[in-house]
Amino acid sequence: MSNTSENPNPSSSSAKITLKTSDNELFEVEEAVAMKFCTVKQYFEDEKDNDVAARGSSTVIPLPNVHSAVLARLISYCKKLPQSNAVADNHEEEETKKKERKQYGTPGDLVDLISAANYLDFKEGLEFFNQALADHIQNKSVEYVRKFFGIKGDFEPHEEEKYREEYAWAFEGVDED
Amino acid sequence: MVRHKVQVLDLCLFLNEESFVLPRSLFTCESIKVLNLHMCYNLRLPSSIFFPSLKILTLKHIVSHDDQSTQRLFSGCLVLEELTLDNCYWENINAISISTPMLKGLVIYDLLDSESRYQVIVFGMSLKFFVYEGRLKNDYCFCNPSSMVDACINVDGRQIEVAYHANKLIKELSNVESLVLTPQTVEALDYKEEFIAHLPKFHNLTHLEFYMGFVDMASGALMKVFQSSPCLASLELNGGIEITKEDWKLDHVPPCFLTHLKTIKIGDFLGTEEKVLVVRTLLRNTAVLERMVIPWSKKFLGQDQKQKAVNDHLLTLPKGKICKIMDVSFPLKSGKNRKFRKKQNAKKSRKRIEDLPDPIIQHILSYLSTEEAVRTSILSKRWKYLWTSIPKLDFDEGELDRRMMFMKFVERVLALHDPSDIKNFSLSCNVQYDTSRINAWICSVVEHKVQELDLYLRNFQEPLALPPCLFTCESLEVLILHVFHSLKLPSSISFSSLKFLALEKVIFSDDHSTQQLFTGCPILEDLSIIDCIWKNVKALLSGLGNVETLTLNVGALEVLSYAKELFAHLPVFYKLTRLNFESAFPIEFDREALLTITRNSPCLNYLSFGTVALFELQLVCLPTYCGNHDGIMNPVPSCFVTNLKTIEIFGFCGDEKEMHAVKILLGSASVLERIVIICDEFYFEFHGDLKKKPKEIFEQILLFPRGSRSCT
């Protein structure tokens, strides 16, 4: 509705691909970035096969499951990608990575990013954001995780008590924050 | 950046320079979608401003002196949807007109003590939400207030001027569905009787919320709002309640209490008499109330009895049939934060972790430790078995004496794990009398096609024989055995995928099977043998032609040295490129074994001598060179002439023998590029000449003749 003025101007550069999000935003991204999203890649290649005449990036690839705000963040993550993907080999590096992961916001933001990355079949992003979300669960009590992630505990109290006993080892020494 | 089609731009500038001007091209940038400007200085705007794509604009601490340019800025944003003005300073400005047709959200923080007065006119035809926090010294006009759905107002100020503006503002907001106010705002509305009479009717209001501080239930303005909101269904008094008038009672029951009000929430509840009175009155006068939620105040913590008494009392109050009183015992986050989160939720279709598919959650769990992953099983029924596919299991008994609990846990986790592979398994525990249980675990992970196995077993009370299935495991790529026990090997050993093998403190007692172990690893690339004990072992390392990295400690070298006749059987390490020697004692570089290995490694390019016991002062490790007094290596290993580029020596003390060894190494390594010598600080500290000695050594070493250039 708001996007008539936002013409992507597709002929300007052949290495650009236009993506259309669920809220009808148009994003023009470099082909190298777009190809990281396997879903886009697949679509792009199919499109090429179907229509040999339509060369370059004249088509708009719709992404009905991705919101513009989420896509913008995924793209900005993509651009920083190269240095952030090697496996950390020492503690210090792991800490900086953790900090980097923390920048991607609240669990809610991360869930959005994860489901978008999943839909786009964007492997590195999925790994990164999944790990970032895992950081939020680390060292937290069950009650905290439930509250933080809006999970409704649906066990009967005696059931829960039983499981807590069975896995007693796992429930020792947990921070209650 | 503008040239690179930036879409999100966040500028936070703290300037001293008066003359700073943002580049012109920024203000005509076509690609920009989100712009955050945070500057404590005068914003100078060019004559032409045009942001065709800008959706979200935030201005923070901006100072603007000029009526016209400000106007241009807002009218240049054609598709702007969200605007935040955070404590901006407008001087010499009579009116700010925000005329952006697509504007959906407007957020204004206005806490600066500014003398200037101006009028803000908002021409947003589709404005949905409005947030205001500040002193409300200025006048706000909305040309199409009927579009507004959500509003949040926090007014701070008690002057008549403020009261007037507040009253006017609230009139503009008469179409909202959800309204969030603070008690101060109510006070401002309450300022004068005649103002109260002018409060509008809120036809659409369904949700009314208060935060920050006690709401005065006796306030006339509040009652008027209740009376004028016929559809109100949910009322939240998060900051708590109070009554300033004695003998307060609900005179005219607002219509919504009888027809629509279903949920009431009261925060910061302390159970005093006046508060109970309010609750009782509300309960008595609400006909369709379904839920009354009273979260416990933080102040109750630790006063369980008192809390229970209040709770019981509340439950005895007369109430309608369907009403439930609920209490939640954790303190609430501030209402303001929740409000903003809600706003964000409305903006995007926010997903929750529960919406993610199982494989994703399982992936997330794989980043947690085993204990943490298992803990998620009691989050809810859906999570009960999600953890059972995690590919990495690590168990560490630790020092604490909770053995029963630990053993039970490992057993249960392995039993419940689904049939998928367990790629990594690491176990660190005391063995005591449980060899059969531990062996059963190992068999179980072998069945799950384990790829990396790390066993650290200690405190044996009975002999251990690792299960034969381990030694024919085809999937195993990494094996770390840290087992202070005699290693009983089965007759058949075949690690067809094993690339990395580390043996620490293992006792080898049989020659034949030891040889078999090494011949059973045809593609081994990396071998570490540390602090192992060799009994009756004559041959070693045969069949290891493929290793690329080899770490040996002196024990292994001794075995080789004692059986000189076996040198002939040492393989040529065609692929060996890194060789580390470790020891707590001086490494004698002229050891025949050491030299033979070096000679048999034609491709070696890295050689290090290190120590594993740096913390023990006397046991300094050093490569020494005792024999061969003429100082010639004869013959020089071929790799010294062709490939050896780096030598590292740790725990160097600089005595005569060591210096001699370094001299010889330097003299014979002709393609050497780097020699790194790390001095043993403890040794020098111990001898009290930390500063002087290393420097001397350094100078001395530089004087040695060398085969190629080097650095220290």
UniProtKB/TrEMBL annotation, chain A:
<dbReference type="InterPro" id="IPR016072">
    <property type="entry name" value="Skp1_comp_dimer"/>
</dbReference>
<dbReference type="Pfam" id="PF01466">
    <property type="entry name" value="Skp1"/>
</dbReference>
<comment type="function">
    <text>Involved in ubiquitination and subsequent proteasomal degradation of target proteins. Together with CUL1, RBX1 and a F-box protein, it forms a SCF E3 ubiquitin ligase complex. The functional specificity of this complex depends on the type of F-box protein. In the SCF complex, it serves as an adapter that links the F-box protein to CUL1.</text>
</comment>
<feature type="domain" description="SKP1 component POZ">
    <location>
        <begin position="16"/>
        <end position="80"/>
    </location>
</feature>
<feature type="domain" description="SKP1 component dimerisation">
    <location>
        <begin position="130"/>
        <end position="170"/>
    </location>
</feature>
<dbReference type="GO" id="GO:0006511">
    <property type="term" value="P:ubiquitin-dependent protein catabolic process"/>
</dbReference>
<dbReference type="InterPro" id="IPR016073">
    <property type="entry name" value="Skp1_comp_POZ"/>
</dbReference>
<comment type="subunit">
    <text>Part of a SCF (SKP1-cullin-F-box) protein ligase complex.</text>
</comment>
<dbReference type="GO" id="GO:0016567">
    <property type="term" value="P:protein ubiquitination"/>
</dbReference>
<dbReference type="Pfam" id="PF03931">
    <property type="entry name" value="Skp1_POZ"/>
</dbReference>
<dbReference type="InterPro" id="IPR011333">
    <property type="entry name" value="SKP1/BTB/POZ_sf"/>
</dbReference>
<dbReference type="InterPro" id="IPR036296">
    <property type="entry name" value="SKP1-like_dim_sf"/>
</dbReference>
<dbReference type="GO" id="GO:0009867">
    <property type="term" value="P:jasmonic acid mediated signaling pathway"/>
</dbReference>
<dbReference type="InterPro" id="IPR016897">
    <property type="entry name" value="SKP1"/>
</dbReference>
<keyword id="KW-0833">Ubl conjugation pathway</keyword>
<comment type="similarity">
    <text>Belongs to the SKP1 family.</text>
</comment>
<dbReference type="InterPro" id="IPR001232">
    <property type="entry name" value="SKP1-like"/>
</dbReference>
<comment type="pathway">
    <text>Protein modification; protein ubiquitination.</text>
</comment>
<protein>
    <recommendedName>
        <fullName>SKP1-like protein</fullName>
    </recommendedName>
</protein>
UniProtKB/TrEMBL annotation, chain B:
<dbReference type="InterPro" id="IPR001810">
    <property type="entry name" value="F-box_dom"/>
</dbReference>
<dbReference type="InterPro" id="IPR055357">
    <property type="entry name" value="LRR_At1g61320_AtMIF1"/>
</dbReference>
<dbReference type="InterPro" id="IPR053781">
    <property type="entry name" value="F-box_AtFBL13-like"/>
</dbReference>
<dbReference type="InterPro" id="IPR006566">
    <property type="entry name" value="FBD"/>
</dbReference>
<dbReference type="InterPro" id="IPR036047">
    <property type="entry name" value="F-box-like_dom_sf"/>
</dbReference>
<feature type="domain" description="F-box">
    <location>
        <begin position="350"/>
        <end position="386"/>
    </location>
</feature>
<dbReference type="InterPro" id="IPR050232">
    <property type="entry name" value="FBL13/AtMIF1-like"/>
</dbReference>
<dbReference type="InterPro" id="IPR032675">
    <property type="entry name" value="LRR_dom_sf"/>
</dbReference>
<dbReference type="Pfam" id="PF24758">
    <property type="entry name" value="LRR_At5g56370"/>
</dbReference>
<dbReference type="Pfam" id="PF00646">
    <property type="entry name" value="F-box"/>
</dbReference>
<dbReference type="Pfam" id="PF08387">
    <property type="entry name" value="FBD"/>
</dbReference>
<protein>
    <submittedName>
        <fullName>F-box/lrr-repeat protein</fullName>
    </submittedName>
</protein>
<dbReference type="InterPro" id="IPR055411">
    <property type="entry name" value="LRR_FXL15/At3g58940/PEG3-like"/>
</dbReference>
<dbReference type="Pfam" id="PF23622">
    <property type="entry name" value="LRR_At1g61320_AtMIF1"/>
</dbReference>
